[in-house]
Amino acid sequence: MLALSLEKSFPGFRLAVALEVQEGEVLALLGPSGSGKSTLLRLIAGLLSPDKGFVRFRDQDLTPLPPERRGVGFLFQDYALFPHLTVAENLAFGLVEARWPKAAREDRVEELLRRMELTPHARKRPQELSGGEQQRVALARALAPRPRLLLLDEPLGALDLRLREELLLFLRRTLRAEGITTLVVTHDQEEAFLLAGRVAVMREGRLVQVGRPEEVYTRPQDAWTARFLGHKNLLSPEESQALGLPPKPHLLPPQALGLGGPLRGKVEERLFFGARVGLWVRAKGVRLYLEAPAGPEEGTEVGLHLDPKRAVAFGG
Q1: CB-based burial label for 55 (10 Å; 0-12, 13-18, 19+)
Q2: By C-alpha distance, which of 196, 229, 195 is closest to 212?
Q3: Do both 220 and 236 map to the same domain?
Q4: N or C: the chain end with fewer CB closer than 10 Å?
Q5: Edge-to-edge strands of the sheet including 286-292?
Q6: How much is the mean pLDDT over the chain?
Q7: Looking at 200, 226, 252, which one is the last position of a domain?
Q8: pLDDT value at residue 158
Q9: Is residue 37 a contact partner of residue 185, using CB atoms and an 8 Å limit?
Q10: How far apart are CA 312 and CA 226, in angstroms?
């Protein structure tokens, strides 16, 4: 198990995080830019020294150890591949540094080339590869020495949308196959939810909420977390009361609202996304958002079903 309690201060910013990650677990650190996600990874890797605290892995205190002795694999957003080395040589670099025997080194490189679908590119230089291929090389190089702990800092952030979607499930399968305890930094909730078994939401150097993706999304800790996760139906006490809920702030997650029901409303905006339609509907003076496979046109009167049991109340 990875256990940490770390504090680090910079001018205008202070990080203080305590966290436990189970053996073989993939945990996503999710938060906006400037929340301290990458700083936390660098503290765990030993690239920064904490002002206070510790990092322990499998009952070993890593805090006093330099980065090269922590057994940690680190993948940066820019990949940092060696341009003068071939793909195979990039993969073997860490194994040479770790003094792996030549036969074991060659077997591991061949295994990763095959798993990452890079065998045809083994003799190419990084600059001859596409962005997606470079990403796979960087991931394979981080995995090559079989690190005890893997840290990924926005691993898909440098790719365009098409490549990100293509490689997201590939990365998910790879992390599960390797079974390495992994922390993934991302600001994208879809990446976090698909890659990780648990999500830790960060804000201004603090952990706001930690839990399984479904739990964090459907029952966010507060209104800030709900907004960050993309929820649109955040109701004021007055809006809640107008819809028949107690007069306090509420979140209506997607499961709480649907078409067809006694609550009457009018479609003000219809957004076509291809596989789904987004609808902004005004009901009892409250502007509500819902999605459906298909939906009525703008100006149409509709019935809505609101399930009060699925509404999430904030502020006690």
Answers
A1: buried
A2: 196
A3: no
A4: C
A5: 286-292, 277-283, 257-272, 301-306
A6: 91
A7: 226
A8: 60
A9: yes
A10: 10
> What secondary structure, in 3-state letters, does the chain show?
CEEEEEEEEECCEEEEEEEEECCCCEEEEECCCCCCHHHHHHHHHCCCCCCEEEEEECCEECCCCCHHHCCEEEECCCCCCCCCCCHHHHHHHHHHHCCCCHHHHHHHHHHHHHHCCCHHHCCCCHHHCCHHHHHHHHHHHHHCCCCCEEEEECCCCCCCHHHHHHHHHHHHHHHHHHCCEEEEEECCHHHHHHHCCEEEEEECCEEEEEECHHHHHHCCCCHHHHHHCCCCCEECHHHHHHCCCCCCCEECCHHHEEEEEEEEEEEEEEEECCCCEEEEEEECCEEEEEEECCCCCCCCEEEEEECHHHCEECCC
- Token pair, residue 280, equals 């902004």
Q: Are residues 250 and 292 in the same domain?
A: yes
Of 197, 226, 255, the last residue of a domain is 226
Domain region containing 56: 2-226
Q: Judge contact between 144 and 100, C-beta under 8 A.
A: no
With 0.70 as the threshold, say if the pTM is over it. Answer: yes
pLDDT digits (tens, 9 = 90+) for 126-172: 999 988 888 889 888 988 888 889 999 887 776 666 667 777 888 88
Please, what sign has the CA dihedral across residues 223, 255, 162, 41?
positive
User: Among residues of the chain, what percentage have pLDDT more than 90?
Assistant: 72
Look at residue 228 in the predicted model and tell me its pLDDT. Answer: 94
- Using one digit for the tens of pLDDT, what is the confidence trace for 85-120? 999 999 999 899 889 999 999 999 999 998 888 999
